Each structure stands twice: as structure tokens, then as C-alpha cells.
Amino acid sequence: QVQLVESGGGLVQPGGSLRLSCAASGSIFNINSMGWYRQAPGKQRELVAVIISRGAASATNYGDSVKGRFTISRDNAKNTVFLQMNSLKPEDTAVYYCYCYSLREYWGQGTQVTVSS
After folding, report:
1. What are the residues whose beta carbons fall under 8 Å from the beta carbon of 7, sequence distance 6 or more?
2. Strand ranges in the chain using DSSP code E only, listed in sequence order
3. Which of 9, 56, 70, 74 has its CA 20 to 30 A from that of 83?
4. Could you list the pLDDT tens digit for every one of the 117 residues in the chain?
5. From the CB of residue 101, how many other CB atoms can be counted at a distance below 10 Å?
């Protein structure tokens, strides 16, 4: 089993920034991918950003609505992934879920991000 612990959500004004963190622990075996999804009220869960491990290298994939504003990064030694969110908009308001794939999918419990003046 893998446990994912998220932190860093909160309330921010439009145009502001937040940084989310997600640490994986437990029976970790070769995490293939790790990242973030989000779900706003009444909407389906959508991709925010994910890092996919490809041997010694990695690739990133972003949802169209966050490209150029959000940046995902990963500390492999600590099995932690970060999401730097800049130029936040009210439509970024959602519960953000950490995700990882290590032999199967794992999800965090979610952290609320609210963008409002």
C-alpha cells in the first residue's frame, strides 16, 4: 500500500500563487507517474499535471487550462511531487487530488484550493 499526504491548499486571491506538495510513503515500488488532478463542484475530475518517469528521464503533461501557469516538479529521493500554481483564477477553484501509479493507482484525500477575492 502507498499513502499520499497532500498539503498546501487554501484560499488565495485571483492572480495569486499557491504551492501544493504530496509525499508518498509505504510500500513504494518504482513509481511510474505522480501528479495532480482536480475536481470542481458539478464537474468531472480532470488532469492538472503529471510527471511520468521514463528511465533516468521524465516527461511532464499538463491540462490545457493550466499550461503556462502551473509547474510540476518532483523530488525522487523523497517521493514527493510539487505543484507550483501561479496566476490563479477563480476557475481554478477545486479539490486537488494527488495521484501516483506504483503497480496500481493511488489517490490522496484531496486538498481544497479556493481562488476568490
Report:
1. 20, 21, 22, 111
2. 2-7, 10-12, 18-26, 33-39, 46-54, 57-62, 70-75, 80-85, 94-101, 105-107, 111-115
3. 56
4. 889 999 999 999 999 999 999 999 987 778 889 999 999 999 999 999 999 987 778 899 999 999 999 999 999 888 899 999 999 999 999 999 999 998 899 999 999 999 999
5. 17
